[in-house]
Fold this protein.
Amino acid sequence: MTSTPETQWVALRGRLQEISALVSAADLLEWDQLTYMPSGGAGARGQQLATLQRLAHEKLIDPTLGLLLDTLEAATAQQDAASDEPAILREVRRRYERAIKAPPAFTAEVAEHLAASYDAWAVARPANDFGLVRPFLEKTLDYSRRYADFFPGYAHVADPLIDVGDHGMTVATIRPCFAALRQQLAPLVKQISDQTPPDDRCLYQPFAEDKQIAFGEQIITAFGYDFERGRQDRSPHPFSTRIGAGDVRITTRIYPNDLAQGLFSTLHEAGHAMYEQGVDPALAGTLADEGVSMAVHESQSRLWENLVGRSWPFWNHHYPQLQSIFPEQLGKVSLDTFYRAVNKVQRSLIRTDADEVTYNLHVIIRFELEQALLEGSLAVADLPDAWRAAYAEALGIAPPDDRDGVLQDVHWYAGLIGGSFQGYTLGNILSAQFYAEAVRAHPEIPAEIGGGKFNTLHGWLREQIYRHGSKFTTAELLQRITGGPLRLEPYLAYLTGKYGQIYELT
Ligand code: ZN
């Protein structure tokens, strides 16, 4: 058979579809594991997942896939780089190179180590015993450095680790940005902390769980989350997962005595899922059919959760309805009190409970500690003390124990060190940059939100971000949308404007 670029595209597409199918099957098993699987299924499920992931990996590192890429890259060299085919090739090439550079034996060894490390952490955290995980963490740090060394030529040892989730981002670009953000946030946090904290007791009353779920689902339907191509279930840790172009699911966590937790986690995960639901169907099954980076993904969840879902216009419209659903609990609580309650700023020890203003300080602390560990200027043995010192300096509080300190997040105990946190804060920064651009293009957006309408904003995000999947890197997307690089100013203007008003700062 003669081989033309057309037949080679068919061959490539077929292989990518197979990889996608295996990954999606694993994702569905994982979704089931985290939602409905009986605990007795854990052993078999672990084996099933490992098998599917191994098969997908084997298909990705197949040398003949590399040959197909070589030929097709040459054949499309003259095409517009922004069109689908070169973009798909770039994304597949990136994944292929990353997968072949770390030897399979190393990858398997790390996976086995991380599984043991996670088990140790699951015991160490409730026992408040850092000593239990310390040898595991030392080994993880060693593996993290060795992983980076498979990608020689990096400027900083963390760059290859950051590249996994946030392709194109480096320590050199993130560090000055985070340092500037930290410097600007410190006085804002201090000013706010000097005020009387808002009374948020209205959020902590008995709220019927089915009514909480129904209200959240009504809001995300209005946002544009498509229940014909998705569903919401409950899980201990909320997440979103894409099983296919027509099946992007979310989960939420509902508390009977806490209204904000469930609602805002639903809005957050819907933001992630709407991004995935909005990818151009032409990219389906090509590996370029998912959100491009942790940072852009988090920008979408945060945009819907915070910039929309915690805004004054949003609650001005929706609060009377919420009051009519919960008349006993909220009937006598004013809109102003409720709005201030859902935007309460408080210096706290736990990242996942943190508000919009202090959240980034938690992330920046972790990012800086990761760099220090990787650079060798901080030893694992000294990490708990370094953690306490960093919290005391940045937030003015220090955890009394390691359970609420260095042991609180699973990330370092279940994955490599160096690339797992930056995306949260980059996402916050991007959320404001994108939103400012959307409002510049459509100044009616805030008024529409105040009228319970979201289609102009959703349509703009779909057109500018969602449909592209992974066709453009984070930096390329930013350039196309804003005409420039990552900028802190819109985010700082958003935070100081909103919280200056809530806390009557001058
Ligand atoms: Zn998220």
